[in-house]
Amino acid sequence: MKILLATDLSLEAESAARWALDLRDRILTSDRPASLSALYVAPPEHYSVRSGEPLSENPDFNARQTHQVRDWLRTLSPTTDDIDILLEEGNPAAVITDFCQKHHVDWLVLGTSGAGAISRALLGSTAMKLAHRAPCKTVLVQPDHDTLSAAPRLSVAVDFLPGSQAALFSGAHLAHLTGAQLDLVHILHDTPTPTLNTGLVNYLSPQDLDQLTERTRECLIELGVQVKTLYPELTFASHVYAGPTVATLTHHCETQPVDLLILGKKSRSALQDRALGSIASAMARKHPTSLMLVPPEDHLDR
């Protein structure tokens, strides 16, 4: 399994590096193969203006930058000498996306600035762009979540559509590798909506909402049973809430011991995602905990 750490050597990247190392070590402990590489992308403004020579073709730069990345990794963990260090140049989001595609990366791990009044995610940072565009599972690590806990809890947002099915089975596979509990979360909309044929507002009575909640919980339990046919040792719980999706998911992450929230995503540009207001896009901006975004075409790692 290929794990790629995209790093700019920032403080945010330190948490991502520790998270990626922890993931690699947990996979190796489960007797599965795992490799971790660190990719540093020099942005265009660092090109050699005098000679016009790309920095990646400059031996002195390569040596200095590789040494800098290696020293940075060693300050984080003594078990980093086997990490491949890769140097590229160009637009970071485009280069990293292309690298993941060409090298069949399974997990891309990124640091972020976390939630804030004017966070870089809100301003369209490299991490935010990659959250939408990367063709593989993409983990956005919060600064204070540098490892999974001793008994991890993973939450998967389930809406019973194909995108969330990929997220569910990717989450189950990660729970299997890390010994985590898997929580299945579904949000019911409790706001009134107009009916298509009459235009009248359709209200759910408290009794209707209770019945719908119970039926939904039964569906989540059925999904859990299906997952356990693949991973019999897995433990899971189901949560059904009613309310606005983004606010309710955020509240779940803030009130439950969630190490990682797993969401399905659509592979498109950040601009399109913001215009369409997807849940994955909104949660990436809210960032209440570390996130793993799973493309709909994701497959189980073997």
From TrEMBL:
Name assigned to this protein: Universal stress protein
Domain UspA: 2-141, 155-295
Domain of life per record: Bacteria
Signal sequence interval, chain numbering: none
Transmembrane regions listed in the UniProt entry: none
Family note: Belongs to the universal stress protein A family.
One Pfam family linked to the record: Usp
Family matches, as SUPFAM superfamilies: Adenine nucleotide alpha hydrolases-like (SSF52402)
